[in-house]
Amino acid sequence: MTTRGVDFEARYGLPLGFGAFGSDTSRLDLRFSGTRLIAFDYNPLAAILDLTIDCAGKFGQTCGNPYAKWRLSTRATYSTGPMTVSVLYRHLSAVKDDDSATTHAVERIKAYDYFDLTAAFRIKDGFTWSVGVNNVFDKQPPILGDNQQQANTYPSTYDLYGRAFFVSTNVKFGNEDWYDRETPPPSIVMAGLFRVCRPGGSSLKYSGQTALRYPVRRNEPGSQPCRCHHRAPPIAASGVICPGRGTAM
Fold this sequence. Notes:
With 249 residues, the chain is mainly beta. It has strands spanning 2-16, 26-42, 53-54, 58-59, 70-80, 83-92, 95-97, 108-109, 112-124, 127-134, 164-171, 177-178, 193-197, 203-207, 215-216, 240-243.
């Protein structure tokens, strides 16, 4: 079995001049990713080269699961104050049966599009409540009759449950402030090369416009403050940003 394809991803974010829930600002983040399957050469018997079949864009008794040539995903996220709303779009391109010599009940599966919606609310520090719905438009899986994998369809590829609602909570305990965001707060976004130093002398080095996914810990009683060679503003309850190429101390 050999495959060829291209994976791609693009991200874009911008601040907005309005907000809600007590905030004067907000942010919109966009992400687009996908896979273009160029070839999926499969041979059930390696000793017989003539049995090799290109399963890209096909499904059936030989290829098994559908191998869509296009798999796309697009997410739009709007955040303001304690609220974050996200919409996800998923696309699978059409596929056709891999056996041209046999006529089955279903010879072609049309393209499938799914939409998911999620809203998260930060009730207080350390407690977030999320609600959402997957497959908003209740898209049903294809029914394939005699040309299928199991359950009369392909459950590992298509959504079997239809529209599904969910509720979840995220609770964090302990004596630490953890920032785990794709985009850090505006007060700690800097351009160029810089470091974020933390109590105990450790530091994290970043370059570019933003620092992604880093922790900022509270100072423990009696601990030495984190210092840099350069003067820099404090961030959160502890730690400082070291601009330029200075080493955190």
